[in-house]
Amino acid sequence: MNNKFFKKLKKPYIIAEIGVNHGCSLKRAKSMILLAKKGGADAVKFQTYKAENLASKYSPAYWDKKKEKTKSQYLLFKKYDKFGYKEYKILHNLCKKKRINFLSTPFDKGSVHYLKKLVPFFKIASADINNYPLLKIVAKTNKPVLISTGASKISEIKNAVKILKKFGARDIAIMHCILNYPTKDINANLRMIKNLKKVFPKNIIGYSDHTLPDSYMSSLLFANMMGAEIFEKHFTDNKKLSGNDHYHSMNYEDILLFRKNVENLKIKLGKFNKKPIKSEIKSIKFARRSIYSKVKIRKGEKIKEEQIICKRPGIGISPMLWDKVLGKISKINIPEDKPIKWKFLK
């Protein structure tokens, strides 16, 4: 598989998932795009669906109902399914003007049909990893595909990738995700990212985060340490708003913080191969020891153990050569506390 598109993306690649946090207000959606850009996001992502094509009217909630009180999936989705091609085209044009990628997750065939004209790649939600018809129609667009893997077995992920490849997708990135809203820290399981990297070595691996953001954006930062390169998190302009996805979303300041932390981490992680670095040269010379005379050593004397000592700085013979110095004959009178040199010995 040739993942040229995803490999060429700036890393870390950050997707601010506005989703439906705009509340079906075009004005607010535009404002949120500008905030995401201000924070340094590489893309904004919406969700494109019609409630009747997504959930039965009898579908129960699976989210934390203390945060989002709606008990029916259908009723919740119906609140936020008002945008169509006209609105997304407007938002796409704004993104193009502001140089931030426009994305939207499709949940049905019709959405795929018109979004393919607007998005550089498709995102498939975790819950649709076994949605054969949707995988098939997305793959047939021949666009790159980003697929989330919440609540999925490795066998299911492999099968989804196989279907995408079969019908035309050649560029697939895979996102670790936990399908809980919100995800408790104990359930984040970020080491699963390493598992995905091992099982899918040719694919770019990312992380779609549903944990509550903290003052360090630690879930995203630790995911970066595990090897994730693409990051997606719900985005809001007001964390205090109740309902939907606001309560586990990041804001533009969080994006700025994450980028800053990643840069600091990158600086601190440094190089892979263990060896002295340039700034340690002085330390090697002055913090390490060399062999010194402990007492005055007269010319012609054979060097004995009680006559020498290891001291700083390391400007003489290395202590690793201690046994080679013992038994040598002094060619000169060596004063006390003098670094021993080979030219002093025979």
Which helices and strands occur, and which strands form pairs?
Blueprint: H1 4-8, E1 13-19, H2 26-39, E2 43-48, H3 51-54, H4 73-79, H5 85-98, E3 101-106, H6 109-115, E4 122-124, H7 132-139, E5 145-148, H8 154-166, E6 172-177, H9 192-199, E7 205-209, H10 218-226, E8 230-234, H11 252-269, H12 281-287, E9 290-293, E10 308-311, H13 322-325
Helix pairs in contact: 2-5, 2-11, 7-8, 10-11
Give structural attributes.
two-stranded antiparallel ribbon, TIM Barrel, elongated, 8-stranded parallel sheet, alpha/beta, 13 helices, Type Iii Antifreeze Protein Isoform Hplc 12, 346 residues, 2 domains
Poorly predicted runs of 5 or more residues: none
CATH H-level superfamily of the largest domain = Aldolase class I
Average pLDDT, to the nearest integer? Answer: 96
* Helix content percent band: 25-40%
CATH class of the largest domain: Alpha Beta
The strand order across the widest sheet is 3-2-1-8-7-6-5-4
By CATH, the topology of the largest domain is TIM Barrel
